[in-house]
Amino acid sequence: MKGGYKNFHTKGFTLLELIIVIAIISTLAMVLIPSLTEARNQAKLISCKTAIKNISTMVENYSVDNNDKYPNLDFQVTISSPLKDYYTSIIKCPVSKDEYYYYYLSNSNSYQIYCPTSSSTLKHKTPKGIIQKLYFDPKEGTKEEY
Ligand SMILES: [Zn+2]
Questions:
Q1: Ligand 1 centroid – CA 79 distance (Å)
Q2: Distance of CA 77 from the midpoint of ligand 1 (Å)
């Protein structure tokens, strides 16, 4: 009898134990995977906002070197754009994998920098919803439209 009891335990998992383990693992996965995706989306949004801020610093440096004038045309901020002398590395949105847009606002002698997801089908996803437009305005800061 003692031998039989010992045998039962050295055989490995019973079917019931396996089912319980699989149920626990799948429950954990169901809880963890959405929050991991959310954390990754949040990290992409933060790095996109940082990229927009870096471009605005490039624009400000450009104006310092050009009699306080901003570039007075619209363009995509690539390594061959008017900001090329201020480019230190390739700056792309981590969601759309595309370059940012610079828009000159002639009536206020100001500008806006848009995340390329604003004109792409790929969007920033947040717990608040999907961002349709993400841009920086030197007077208002970084703006999100849902
Ligand atoms: Zn972006």
A1: 18
A2: 13
Task: Report the distance separating Cα 69 and Cα 136, nearest Å.
Answer: 18
Q: Is residue 9 included in any domain, yes or no? A: no
Counted domains in the chain? 1
Is the pLDDT at 7 greater than 80, yes or no? no
Q: Which domain holds residue 123?
A: 14-145
Query: Starting at the edge strand that comes first in sequence, how are the strands of the sheet with 101-105 ordered?
Result: 75-76, 101-105, 110-114, 133-137, 141-145
How far away, in angstroms, is 96 Cα from ligand 1 center?
7
Within a domain: residue 4?
no
Query: Which of 76-80, 85-89, 115-119 has the weakest average pLDDT?
Result: 85-89
How high is the pLDDT of residue 87? 86
Question: Whole-number mean pLDDT of the chain?
Answer: 90
